[in-house]
Amino acid sequence: MTEVRSICVLCGSGEGALPAYRLAAEDLGRQMAARDIRLVFGGGSIGLMGAVADAVLAGGGEAIGVIPDFLIRYEVGHNRLTDLVITGSMHDRKRRMFEMADAFVVLPGGLGTLDETFEIVTWKQLGLHASPIVVLDVDGYWAPLRGLIEAVIANRFAHPKVAELLTFVPTVDALFPALAAAPQPAAGVATGHL
Question: How far apart are CA 194 and CA 191, in angstroms?
Fold first, then answer.
C-alpha cells in the first residue's frame, strides 16, 4: 500500500447527539498531526469538520479545506486553515478532495457525509482508485450503514467482496492499523454486479 500522507475526512458540519462524536473528531485530528498526516476536508469551521481541523492545527499539522462558494455562508468556511480551496459546485468539491487524498476516513455525519461516502466507495468499486476507506463507527453510529451494505449483498445487488471496500472500526486507535491493513479491491467486484 502507498504511504498515507494525506487523509480526506468525511464528516458532519453538525455536532451530533453524543459528545463522543466530537471527542473522536478531536482525537483523530490530534493523531493525524502527531503522525504528520495532512487533513483534507469539507472546509467548514463548525461541527465535526471544525473539531477535526482545529485539532490538526493545534497539533501543528496541515489542514486543507475544500468548500463550494455557496456553502461558505452555511458551513462558515474555516479561516485559519493552511489552505481553503473554493470550488464552483459540490461535484468539484468531491473531485478536489479525492485528488488530494491517499485515504478516506468517515466520521459521523448526515446526508452530505453519506453522499460523499457512497461516491468514494462506488469509485473504488469501479476501479477508479484503490485507496483505503475506514469508517469510524463511534458508539455504533454507522451500524445501519453496515447493515445496509450487508442487505445489498444478501439481495444480490452487489458482489460479496463489496464489503471489503471499506473497513469499520470502533475507535481512533484502531483506525491507523486499519488504514495500513486495508485490502486491495478484489477482482470482479465491479464487473460481477454493475
Answer: 6
Q: Please give the grid coordinates belonging to residue 179.
A: 488504514
Query: Amino acid letter at 58?
Result: A
Beta-bridged to residue 41, according to DSSP, are: 65
The amino acid sitting at 81 is L
Do the Cβ atoms of 129 and 98 come closer than 8 Å?
yes
Contacts of 8 (CB under 8 A, 6+ apart): 40, 41, 97, 98, 100, 101, 103, 104, 105, 120
For the chain, domain boundaries: 6-181
Q: In what order do the strands lie in the sheet with 38-41?
A: 83-87, 63-68, 38-41, 6-10, 103-106, 133-136, 167-169
Between helix 19-34 and helix 47-58 the angle, nearest 10°, is: 30
d(CA 40, CA 53) in angstroms, rounded, equals 9
Whole-structure pTM value: 0.94
Query: Does residue 60 sit in helix, strand or coil?
Result: coil
Segment holding 16, helix H or strand E: none
What digits encode the pLDDT tens for the residues 72-102? 877 688 999 999 999 999 999 999 999 999 9
The fold of 6-181 is: Rossmann fold (3.40.50)
